[in-house]
Amino acid sequence: MIEEARITFYEIERCGYYRYNHDEPEFGSVLDVMSQLHDWVKQDDCVLGETCTYKVEEGESVYHTYCFDLVKGNPTNDFLLTTWNEVPSVNGQIAAVNATEHVGAATVNLSEIAEGHIPGYATYFWIIPERKIFATICFHNALNGHQNFKKYMKEYIAKFTSYVVAEEDEDQTNIIGYAQNPGEQAQNYLPSFNSRLFRLPSKLEYLRNNHQFIKKIIRKNKLNPDVQENLSFWEWMLRNIGIADPEPLENEIRIRYEFNRTPSIEELNTIIHQYYEDHDSKWDDVGFHLEGEDAPIWLSHSVAKNKFDLDIEKDNAEIINANSLLAAICQNRQNILNLVNN
């Protein structure tokens, strides 16, 4: 079946084991780490519930991420990773609210979660080790799972590869360092994984070279009721327009605001940096209106992303078959990679 896929590319900035204040890893390439992860999750005795690489501490906003599937393509050595991202539940039940009822009087229904099951949603990643890049692939779900993926990979590198040197202490395992080869003395390397949106330099350079002509900055964003800063901004914004007793922010809402400003080159670089560090929402955007131009220039247009029709197979309503998805990508590989070849 043909499905429209939203593909967004990211650069892998760090992957492996580093000496402090060094930018290149001593060992642990993207291909090496992904190959070890593949072997780890494909062990005969490995079950999905044991594939999360980190613990969730009380009060953290992140939930568990599991490996649903991981397949490797030949001869490209590309990988297709499907992650399962846990969503919150209430005493073994999923809560849903009736959106057609009035605020303050809406009913909430609770659905039982079958024993041993993890409520969540799937996200998909196409990893290309030779290029040190990967792409998120979204279909009907707006969430791409990028932040969960970064945490998952960083914790895997820190705890589970063949380079980890550990000691057993009663009922727990203590990691004492990392060594490239078995039997070598453990060293205090820094395990690391980090990624950022793939930037299209030509569009950013145009902005930098013409920053003195910027007359207006525009911001589009989503306010999330789960983020305290968003709640404070929402209340401030309503009070600022004369609403003395603002209603609480209960659902995600889109906002757009603009102001006249010609940023310095330092300010422009800060805006660009923060956008790339924090951006994961398709509606989160910053635009610049330049003197003499009809339309603003949006930072989202400097990101390597586009929509593609892929011929895929589904295992069920939620899960796309990993082998099918990787095959569909490989059939369109060069066309898709043109996003990052320009």
From TrEMBL:
**At the top level of its lineage, which domain of life is listed?**
Bacteria
Query: Can you name this protein?
Result: Uncharacterized protein
Q: Which organism is it from?
A: Desulfosarcina widdelii
